Every structure is written in C-alpha cells, then in structure tokens.
Amino acid sequence: MGQYPEKTRGRASGYAEEGIISYYADKFDGRRTASGARFDKNAFTAAHRSLPFGTKVEVTNLDNGKSVLVQINDRGPYSEARILDLSPAAARKIGLIGRGTVKAKVVVQ
Questions:
Q1: What is the dihedral of CA 22, 61, 57, 107, to 10 degrees?
Q2: In this predicted model, what pLDDT tens digit does every residue of 92-106 receive, in sequence order?
Q3: 0.85 cut: is pTM over it?
Q4: Which domains are present in the chain?
C-alpha cells in the first residue's frame, strides 16, 4: 500500500512530475472517492497522493504524445510504483486502455 502524506501539498501552476500512471477499473463507478464525490468512469478525473482535491492537471502519455486535462478528486494510486490513476474516460483519450500502465508527464495547470 502507498504512503499518503498527512497534509496535501498545493503546487504552483507549471509544477511537473513524470512517472508511471494507470487507470481505475470500471467496477469503481458510483463509489465514493476520498473527496466525497461519486466516482464517474465517464468524467475526466484522477487520483493523486498529495495534490489538493480540485487541482487540474494535464496528463501526457509520453509514448504517443496524447494529453488530457483532469481534476484530482481522489487519493491514490495504491501502488508505490505509480504516480497517478486516471478515470477510464481520461485513460481512453490518451491511449492507455488495454496497456495497463504508461510513462506520463503530469503538469499542474
């Protein structure tokens, strides 16, 4: 299981990190996220360990250059090897579905 900070850390626009990302399984659709919102597999949302809920980030798949803008509304991922989990809709937009994981760049907007 991943370690989560006691406090979230706001980041200035332009803050970037690179790492491995994945996406949520459809089975989580309708369940509550850490922010209290219901998870919607068709929304453009993501889970991050420390960015405040509501933070918008651009996620770019470094294998194909495709990008998507998402809003952080959950905590995760649970795997320490990953930096972000996307909703299925966002994952589909950047060509992640079927791959499982890809290296990506995450930039705070």
A1: 120
A2: 999 999 888 999 999
A3: yes
A4: 32-108 (2.40.40.10)
